[in-house]
Amino acid sequence: xxxxxxxxxxxCPGRNFVTLKIETxxxxxxxxxxxxxxxxxxxxxxxxxxxIPTLIGRDPRQIEDIWQFGYRGAYWRRGxxxxxxxxxxxxxxxDIKAKMAGMPLYDLxxxxxxxxxMVYGHANGADLAxxxxxxxxxxxxxxxxxxxxxxxxxxxxxxxxxRGKLFYEPADAGLPTETIWDTRKYLNFTPKLFEALxxxxxxxxxxxxxxxxxxxxxxxxxxxxxxxxxxxxxxxxATPAENQExxxxxxxxxxxxxxxxxxxxxxxxxxxxxxNQLIDYIRCTVVRAGGVTHLRRIADLAALYQVxxxxxxxTDLSPVTMGAALHFDTWVPNFGIQEYMRHTxxxxxxxxxxxxxxxxxxHPGEAAGHGVDIDEALAAKYPYRPAQLPVARLEDGTMxxx
Length: 402
Hints:
Elements: E1 3-11, E2 17-24, E3 29-33, H1 40-55, H2 63-72, H3 80-101, H4 105-109, E4 117-125, H5 128-140, E5 145-150, E6 178-181, H6 183-201, E7 206-210, H7 217-227, E8 234-236, H8 246-253, E9 258-260, H9 267-275, E10 281-282, H10 291-304, E11 308-309, H11 319-331, E12 338-339, H12 345-350, E13 356-358, E14 361-363, H13 376-379, E15 391-394, E16 399-400
Parallel strand pairs: 4-5, 4-12, 5-7, 6-15, 7-8, 8-9, 9-10, 10-11
Antiparallel strand pairs: 1-2, 2-3, 4-14, 13-14, 15-16
Helix pairs in contact: 1-3, 2-3, 5-6, 6-7, 7-8, 9-10
């Protein structure tokens, strides 16, 4: 069995997606997601110029060797562009292998560990009252877990508060939009939000919150402590994780569970956080962390330290990644939760998929492979549109973390 062709498909059914399609001499094709929000064309160039030529003629069943070739064979390795490209190849190869076996991917990985994948949705509002109402709407939709983000009094823009309710997409312009941030206003407001949510809905539903790398370690520690009475499922990305030792300070001051890792690319990015038990959930995902092959290694390391998975699943990942993630989630023993931001109807039409949502859980379906395809003719009707993520500045003009 040989790889005969591979091509990159770029489409924008509401936002940009990059998809790799690998074809074989036995007529079986596989697809993988290579989307890197705001930097999509960098991965396209990497795939077309440096990766695809090395795939032609290879046996697609040799997933491990091809992964090692893509990683070890690149002297300038690691980083989001390289690992997103490797992930696209890896996901497509697992898709092919599972189709050849006539199995859903989770069966090929080792079979089910659970009957459904608990997911959380994104409830956001312009102010506290609207966010409380939105959380209630997600509860009515059947969600058992909801991430709550709100506009902050005195700030015009706030992370996580989008232009739509189900399809929040932060990449909004050809050049980055500049937003203003004030940490003290945020810290004063956020505990009030969760106090109001628990007063309105009690403690039967899981609540999550994303600080989005905006806080210093001591600020994050204080927020985690202030949120303890409201029993969050997790506080996400409390501080930039380049300095992994910063989480020691946070851990020493709060019992609020901590989650991090959506921007991580390899096991080396999270090794110390996991081994030192400084986090409770690791948020690496299929497309950003080198595909199913490498994400399995991260999950296995995490399991040794009772750290659970909580894979990133925002709309900057295509349904291809969501499908692969759900098969991974169905198998992985130390599963925690899966982020689920719904795609637009246009995106769902371009990427027909087998997964379904019911009663707070996603189900991957029983189709062979990862269960997601691409309608190339429809994809061609949505050409690429430049869109970048915003940036943040403090009120005095200092650049800050977005």
